[in-house]
Design a protein that fits this description.
Blueprint: H1 9-21, H2 26-33, H3 38-42, E1 45-46, E2 54-55, H4 69-103, H5 115-124, H6 134-150, H7 164-173, H8 180-190, H9 199-229, E3 235-239, E4 249-255, H10 258-268, H11 271-279, E5 285-290, H12 291-301, E6 305-307, H13 312-317, E7 321-326, H14 335-340, E8 345-348, E9 358-360, H15 368-382, E10 398-402, H16 406-412, H17 418-426, E11 431-435, H18 447-458, E12 461-466, H19 467-475, H20 481-484, H21 490-499, E13 504-508, H22 513-527, E14 538-542, H23 549-559, E15 563-566, H24 576-590, E16 594-596, H25 600-621
Parallel strand pairs: 4-5, 4-7, 5-6, 7-8, 8-9, 11-12, 11-14, 12-13, 14-15, 15-16
Antiparallel strand pairs: 1-2, 3-10
The structure holds iron/sulfur cluster and Broken Fe4S4 cluster (MSK).
Length: 637
């Protein structure tokens, strides 16, 4: 099966180079695989016990145990969401453990980079924050967060990050998640053969598990990252494969955990490493990022972004990468086959991630600075082994303005979200759309995301971008205000003119989708204090998805009252009942549902319909004669 259409130019050049040099990539492996299995695609394959595996057909509507399509599809989705949530939550655990170790004096070389973020988070959990040294507060907060993993009989305290009206909806629907670990363990228990077979019951736990991700794992990882490494502020940089340099030692950081990449970034800027690089005949060391680790160093340090998940192997195919330093998630094992064709050393820095062909170099909080310097020195030593004749770096690179945390947005708007709320109320801005998720070689990568983002901003919808979808926008120049503003509608142009808030906001990595929840909650609070995310003109789209983390994100957004439009089906098409639950029943229960629009024009139309109907609903509920302030009436334009 061929990728469905042309990839972006730089990506296409490297796919062609890989083909000419006989280097396998996910693109060539996809072609070799042919169409994917229809049972897997529709969710109708069950392999949770050894009576099977069972595949459901019209002739065989039940598995050997008697499970029907609804049970099997719902069970598979819950397992997917549990796995995706576990990835975000374990990432959060690592960040919290680092914070705890720092407070206890056991994390050499780390510090509280942003004390204001520490105090902000402490206040959210009701801690006394004013008369306490930073490290004491960090220790207390780490304990509170660790208890979010182990809570047994009470809901997670982090659910209080959502507006009160939303929490009441979860309570009424029985969706308030208990501790993260309990919720995810229960998801696996329920889906073992012979436990939970009611698809509605399974799907309710799917939403509960996703909430443990959104308000637990993703929000905690985001807050802890800001405390330890700084809350992002707008920073200029560049993106695409053209950020690699032919005359420098190129080092790529890749994965999701910001702790290691922070240390690598600090070491890469040291005079000692620069001197080593010069001695090796290079002009210096060029550090760039891929995937969400790339977003972490982009939005805190302005380090260039080479690409998203689909560019990881292609960066190596340039022949100009001396070392790729990976941590966790989305680091393809196929990197080893790509690197075998060049001089690139692959390194894994996480104790839980091992891949043949990767050198294990676990960072453990002891001498991480020294460890980072030693790794970079080794990367420099590989420079002499580079084959100059095989180096081909695409020229494409686009300017980027990244780093729009909610605090940064509020800062640009003069200290309050009121200017944005007023514009949402009077229709100058028609909504806020999160464009999130992966890039998938099965579809025409970037086209969907770019067309949708362009369409949204031209209709005065502010876009919040994360993960590989943000990398796609970056490649298209849509994260550059200079290039995006002329494509925006009058409302967004005026917002930029007055407040320097661009039409497309880079919110960061996958766990930073929690910033979209934070923005929604802050807008709701600014609106009238009783508002819910479901009352706001918010929508989310995942144009393409690969990782199980994306169904988890989609489910916590829906549970939060944000409609989610997917550019590709979930693996649930084998059960019309499951699909109806996610699209219609979820809407009755939570005010939002899952929609699938396979083409960007359809997605744009649906997004505008959803945003405008939310505005009309709010306007109908809050009539001017009721004496409410007009700014709280979200009118359709
Ligand atoms: Fe088949 Fe049931 Fe076992 Fe699934 S749990 S593999 S449907 S017998
Ligand atoms: S990196 S989860 S491929 S967005 Fe967060 Fe990209 Fe998807 Fe990984």
């Amino acid at each position: 099966m061929d990728p469905a259409g042309p990839q972006h130019e730089a990506t296409d050049q490297m796919i062609a180079k890989a083909g000419a040099e006989g280097v396998p990539t996910c693109f060539s492996r996809l072609a070799a695989h042919g169409p994917p299995c229809a049972f897997g695609t529709s969710g109708l394959c069950c392999r949770v016990c050894n009576l099977g595996p069972c595949r459901i057909t019209r002739q065989r509507p039940r598995g050997v145990c008697g499970a029907d399509a609804d049970t099997i599809v719902a069970r598979n989705l819950l397992r997917q969401v549990a796995a995706g949530s576990a990835a975000h939550c374990d990432h959060a655990r690592h960040m919290v453990e680092l914070l705890r170790d720092l407070a206890a004096g056991r994390a050499e070389g780390y510090r509280i980079e942003d004390p204001a973020a520490l105090r902000r988070a402490g206040r959210l959990y009701g801690l006394e924050t004013e008369r306490k040294p930073d490290l004491a507060l960090a220790g207390e907060l780490a304990d509170v967060w660790l208890a979010e993993f182990t809570a047994q009989d009470r809901p997670m305290r982090s659910l209080a990050l959502a507006p009160p009206a939303r929490r009441e909806r979860w309570r009424a629907a029985g969706l308030s998640a208990a501790g993260i670990d309990r919720t995810i363990v229960e998801a696996l228990h329920r889906t073992v053969m012979g436990v939970d077979h009611d698809y509605r019951h399974l799907l309710a736990h799917t939403l509960r598990t996703a909430l443990a991700d959104g308000y637990g794992g993703s929000a905690i990882a985001t807050m802890a990252g800001d405390i330890l490494f700084g809350t992002p502020r707008p920073v200029e940089s560049v993106a695409n494969l053209g950020v690699l340099h032919a005359d420098r030692v190129n080092v790529v950081v890749h994965g999701h955990n910001p702790a290691v990449s922070e240390k690598i970034a600090q070491a890469a800027g040291s005079p000692e490493i620069a001197a080593l690089a010069r001695a090796a005949g290079a002009a210096g060391v060029n550090l760039v990022g891929i995937c969400c680790t790339g977003h972490e160093v982009l939005h805190r340090h302005g380090i260039a972004l080479a690409g998203g998940v689909l560019q990881q192997e292609l960066a190596i195919v340039t022949g100009a990468v001396e070392m790729m330093i990976t941590d966790v998630q989305c680091c393809m094992p196929g990197l080893a086959q790509a690197a075998a064709g060049y001089h690139t050393e692959l390194v894994t820095t996480s104790d839980i991630a091992r891949t043949e062909g990767f050198t294990p170099e676990p960072f453990d909080g002891r001498d991480d600075d020294g460890h980072a310097r030693r790794l970079l020195a080794r990367a420099v030593s590989h420079f002499r082994r580079r084959e100059a004749a095989r180096v081909a770096i695409p020229s494409q690179r686009a300017p980027v303005l990244a780093g729009f945390s909610v605090q940064a947005i509020r800062g640009l708007l003069g200290g309050s979200l009121r200017p944005l709320v007023e514009r949402l109320a009077d229709g100058r801005i028609r909504g806020v759309a999160a464009i999130i998720g992966c890039s998938n070689p099965k579809v025409a990568s970037d086209r969907y995301a770019a067309e949708l983002v362009r369409g949204l901003i031209s209709r005065d919808v502010l876009v919040a971008n994360t993960g590989c979808a943000a990398a796609a926008s970056a490649r298209e120049g849509l994260l550059s205000p200079a290039l995006a503003v002329p494509q925006a509608g009058p409302g967004l142009r005026q917002l930029h003119e007055q407040y320097a808030l661009p039409p497309v906001l880079h919110l960061g990595s996958c766990v930073n989708n929690a910033r979209f929840l934070e923005l929604g909650a802050a807008l709701a609070a600014e609106l009238d204090g009783r508002a819910d995310l479901g009352d706001l003109p918010l929508v989310a789209t995942a144009p393409e998805w690969i990782s199980e983390k994306v169904p988890a994100i989609g489910c916590y957004l829906v549970a939060s009252g944000v409609d989610v439009i997917l550019g590709q089906d979930l693996q649930t098409t084998g059960s019309p009942n499951v699909e109806a639950f996610l699209s219609r029943h979820a809407r009755e229960l939570l005010g939002a549902g899952v929609h699938v629009c396979l083409d960007p024009a359809g997605a744009l139309g649906r997004a505008m319909e959803l945003l405008d109907s939310r505005r009309a609903r709010r306007a109908a509920r809050v009539s001017p004669t009721a004496g409410r302030p007009t700014s709280s009436a979200l009118r359709a334009p």
